[in-house]
Design a protein that fits this description.
CATH class of the largest domain: Alpha Beta
Number of helices: 14
Low-confidence stretches: 1-12, 315-324, 370-388
Strand content: 15-25%
Number of domains: 4
Radius of gyration: 41 Å
CATH superfamily of the largest domain: Histidine kinase-like ATPase, C-terminal domain
Structural class: alpha/beta
Distance between the termini: 110 Å
Helix content: 40-55%
Shape: elongated
CATH architecture of the largest domain: 2-Layer Sandwich
Mean pLDDT: 81
Largest sheet: 7 strands, mixed
């Protein structure tokens, strides 16, 4: 095959054809891309061409080589090479194609792709690190909350015991101060855990039917008293056209209003605090409720209006008014979760107003349900019923901490309607239930040997029907939703968080005992 024929067959205007002898000398070159002198050693142009020596010895007549980098006249080029051997002439035809632009584009695409992959991996790694940090923080906060709530339970419990005992006015004032401080500490713990849940996206809004008017009335009475203690006026106004029973997240609405009212109390030293609640709608299914809290407090400078919603921010640097710096941040995030927007207006030195509007459902049932299962906090012991002495209900309490055992013993003694036995761990709980008849079980979830979860599981799978059916109330410093779900799965009927509310405790005991009694009668 002649050089000219090869050129016609393989070349276009992007190629260069070079003929090389078996001694690797340039026989002929069209010099389209690179200039090569006839008779010059092609290996001096580029070391790659040493590979041509093996081509003469191989049986194959053609080869292809890709992406060869060549420096020529100070420029870097990328070429593809195809060779074809002429056995007749003992020459090799070298076809050079300049692929510089192609490989540059491919390189850029690959580089962009690689950078994208690297960036993705970096983001993933950062997310993993954040998840680990968040997990550590959440676990740390949960553990701290548990460890603080446990002693707080006995502190608040015994304070309530002291309040109903014979104490002087001065001692009662001290008790109230300590009780307020304990309540503040519990609020801070709750705020920390809620901030953690919101950041992790695990806080859910739960809409249920509740008595809105009754709920607001309790709030009004509480803060009218709190304002009176600071010698402030407390004004309250609620729209007449707001239904009694609404559907929404009562707990979170309460949390928002308490944080805003506490904020108003903390920063108002004279004048008044006002709570206005209104609606502009008469819709029978869903209505917008507007809440507004107005105070005559110290106010907020314009440049600080956004900063007040940051976690752990306190604008009063002198530390005169206290606070964890979490309240307004939680309010802002909770209103956002409830598809509302918190608005604030303030004049420094004159006061502030916060308002937000929540769209709540209207319950089709506007009739109040009478609470038949309530029991007084301190009941008279062993009442006479038709000439017969009322038999005390037997309660077993699984708890390993002695101060909590002592507190529960005191509460039951003051109540008078129950007798109490104590088991120090889950195994003892099972043993006591198998040896003695009990009407109800109070169970701490964190105990040595066998914890409350395992004990409840064993009880619900027991061969003895009476043991298997016993009502169980968890009394615990654990507060997470996951632990509540675990308790439910273990067959626990009620979940009360420490520090305990004594009224809630006895109401829950009475409710479960009545339910158990009713079921037993139906089975009999």
């Amino acid at each position: 095959m002649h050089n000219k024929d090869v050129s016609k067959q393989f070349l276009d205007n992007r190629h260069q054809l070079v003929t090389v002898s078996s001694e690797l000398k340039v026989v002929e070159s069209d010099n389209v891309i690179f200039y090569l002198d006839k008779g010059s050693d092609i290996t001096e142009f580029h070391p790659f061409f040493y590979t041509l020596t093996t081509i003469f010895d191989e049986l194959e007549t053609s080869h292809r080589f890709f992406c060869i980098q060549i420096e020529f006249l100070g420029k870097r080029r990328y070429i593809d090479i195809q060779t074809k051997k002429s056995i007749e002439n003992q020459e090799v035809y070298v076809f050079i194609e300049d692929m510089t632009e192609h490989y540059k584009n491919v390189h850029q695409i690959k580089q962009v792709r690689n950078e994208s992959i690297i960036q993705f991996n970096v983001v993933q790694e950062l997310n993993n690190q954040l998840e680990v940090q968040r997990g550590f923080k959440n676990k740390f906060l949960a553990n701290v909350s548990h460890e603080i709530r446990t002693p707080l339970n006995s502190i608040k419990g015994f304070l309530n015991v002291l309040k109903v005992s014979e104490v002087s006015k001065e001692q009662l004032d001290i008790i109230n101060i300590v009780q307020d401080s304990s309540d503040t500490l519990v609020t801070i713990l709750d705020d920390l855990l809620d901030i953690s849940k919101i950041e992790a996206g695990r806080l859910e809004i739960k809409n249920r039917r509740f008595d809105f008017k009754s709920f607001i009335d309790v709030l009004r009475k509480t803060y009218a008293l709190r304002a009176q203690e600071k010698r402030l006026d407390f004004d309250f106004e609620i729209g007449e056209n707001i239904p009694n029973f609404l559907v929404g997240d009562r707990l979170r609405i309460n949390q928002i209003l308490i944080n805003l009212l506490e904020n108003a109390l903390r920063y108002t030293h004279q004048g008044s605090i006002k709570l206005n609640i209104s609606t502009s709608s008469r819709n029978l299914r869903r209505i917008p409720i507007t809440f507004e809290i107005i105070d005559t407090g110290i106010g907020i400078a314009p440049e600080n209006l956004e900063r007040i919603f940051e976690s752990f921010t306190q604008l009063e640097k002198r530390g005169l008014f206290g606070g964890s710096g979490l309240g307004l941040s939680i309010v802002k995030q909770l209103t956002g979760l409830m598809e509302s927007e918190l608005e604030v207006k303030s004049v420094e030195g004159e006061g502030s107003s916060f308002n937000f509007t929540l769209t709540l459902g209207v319950s089709h049932d506007q009739k109040s349900k009478i609470e038949r299962d309530s029991v007084p906090l301190i009941a008279l012991p062993d009442k006479e019923i038709k000439g017969k002495k009322k038999k005390k209900k037997r309660i077993l309490y699984g708890e390993d901490i002695e101060v909590n055992q002592l507190l529960m013993t005191k509460l039951m003694a003051d109540h008078g309607g129950y007798s109490l036995d104590i088991a120090k761990n889950g195994e003892w709980v099972i043993e006591y239930l198998e040896r003695y008849p009990y009407d109800l079980l109070l169970l701490d979830l964190t105990m040595p040997v066998m914890d409350g979860f395992d004990a409840a599981t064993v009880i619900r799978n027991h061969s003895n029907k009476q043991i298997r059916k016993i009502p169980i109330i968890a009394l615990t410093a654990r507060t997470t939703q996951e632990e509540k779900e675990l308790a439910k799965e273990a067959g626990i009927n009620a979940f009360l968080i420490k520090p305990l509310d004594q009224k809630a405790l006895f109401e829950t005991i009475d409710r479960l005992l009545n339910r158990y009694k009713k079921k037993k009668q139906e089975e009999d």
